[in-house]
Design a protein that fits this description.
- Helix content is 41%, strand content 21%.
- By secondary structure, it is α/β, with parallel strands linked by helices.
- A nine-stranded mixed sheet has the order 2-1-11-10-12-13-14-15-16. Strands 7-6-5-3-4-8-9-19 form an eight-stranded mixed sheet, sandwiched between helices. A four-stranded antiparallel sheet has the order 17-18-20-21, with no helix packed on it.
- α3 links the parallel β3 and β4.
- α4 packs across α5 (116-124) and α8 (202-215) crosses α9.
- The relative contact order is 0.08.
Length: 600
Amino acid sequence: MVAREDNLAQIFMARAKRHARKPCLRFKEDGLWSHSTYADVGEQVQRVALGLIALGLERGDRVALLSENRPEWAISDLAVLSAGGVQACIYSTNTPEQVGYIIRDCGARICLVSNNNQLQKVLRVKNTLPSLEQIVIFDPIQDITDRDPLVISMAQLCDIGRDKGDPAQLKHRIDSITPDDTATLIYTSGTTGMPKGVMLSHYNIISNVEAVMKVMDIGSSDVALSCLPLSHSFERTASHFSVLYAGASVAYIEGLDALAANMEEINPTVMVAVPRIFEKMHARILDDVHGLGRTAASLFVWALGIGREKAERELAGMRVPAVLRAKHELARRLVFSRIAERYGNRLRYFVSGGAPLAPEIAEFFWAIGIKLYEGYGLTETSPIVSANCPDAIKLGTVGRPLPGVEVRIADDGEIQVRGPNVMLGYFGHPQCSTEIFDPAGWLATGDIGLLDDDGFLRITDRKKDIIITASGKNIAPQNIENLLLMEKSIEQVNIVGDARKYLTAVIVPDFTEIDRWSKEQHLRFTSREETVKHPAVISLIAEAVDRVNGNLVKFETIKKFVLSSSEFSQENNMLTPTQKVRRKEVNQHFRDEIEQMYAE
């Protein structure tokens, strides 16, 4: 009798039996790489799930998970799902206030944390969390400096499950989960800036995974390198659920600083990442080449030209002439093979998502012989909507819609999506859920784009103001701007950072306040142009920015800013009649200054 695979827990348990002896999760411990087999992970998932049920977790209860990428993240996620719970993801970089907001909003009864640092975030806001009954920490309890009655270790949780748990009850829980049951809440910032929990069902995720399997080549022999936070919907679907579905193994990097070293050590076959990581790889390759001297650099330029010519022909479906094939083989042996060694000789392809990928970066990797596929999606779509793939690729686009996923372009150019991967709605925000869907079930993405004659989707603009950095971080600029506007020295602000590696800002000082302050400082300015260029004024604004940055997560902080001597107004077309900043116009007006802030 074939086991049912109607939910994510059943799928994993089936894989744990089918691939029992295969490596499942790989991790570095005491300087050495180790692994847990599928059977090992299956047993650990059951122990944690039994412990959660013994603590009183009921079907549909929310469990918050606050951790960096590590095996316990995956085990906890699968255990919560197996117990019939709903996992609420929290980024490990979130502040205590942001952690508290998510726990309160979803009403989590249990919070799983990785270490003492994450534990302290929860304890700091514990008194504001009426639903929270238990905190479980992955690290040994004896390493915790501040004891709290709510806190137990993962080992203690497993002991509770062993002593009080009932395996038959766990099997019943798993079998009773329906495809339409909510599996997870992934919090994302909306246009209002308030984080909302995207409710994804078991079937939402399963349908997306199965669609990916139809277009991407991934099997049980693959080794994926996990480098994005597992709280990111792209990483969770592509490097967690899809890898486990295929019976492949996943290795967790030690940190982004160790990515290059870990790639050489693990020798992965596939990896998904955001554009910023590929940008850094691109820069590192060029830096290394230039460091080898003029002759080596000239050889690289020659090889790159050969690689580009071959890649262009192959991507266009054209025949590669014998002479070009011979030249490329020489370029591969002399140049490209050495680059391949750095990323592992088994690497079959990269996948980029989470933010727009610069076409020149994609072209570069294809030219050096590394396949780089770009896709598109939203947290609300589980997340993948479309993707370039081995059988259908067009650089500069985000590919064709996945099988079963419908995409259409509205009259105003907005991309709309419908399919089994589209979310159930926003947790606790029915009105917001209603607003984002039309009566026929089409989800408004907030992105502007077009479908070409071959069915490839191209993203051309963003309808909403949400900033997506080159690292794939979703940031609501209004939140940060409102904090800056509370500083008395700042009158207006426009944050920049879409598809960039960090945030910058165009700031209009409050000249009335500056005039008052300057008199106290015995400073005199003859014009506003002189005012915004004076080091003392720049320092004053910098202090205000630093105060705001102190209350933000690192990726939300303003790294650089430029001061404007003129206010945003309707007259200069930088304000709407309702006094809203016209971001495009501001960015265009300060184009040179903005580019200077991002110049290397």
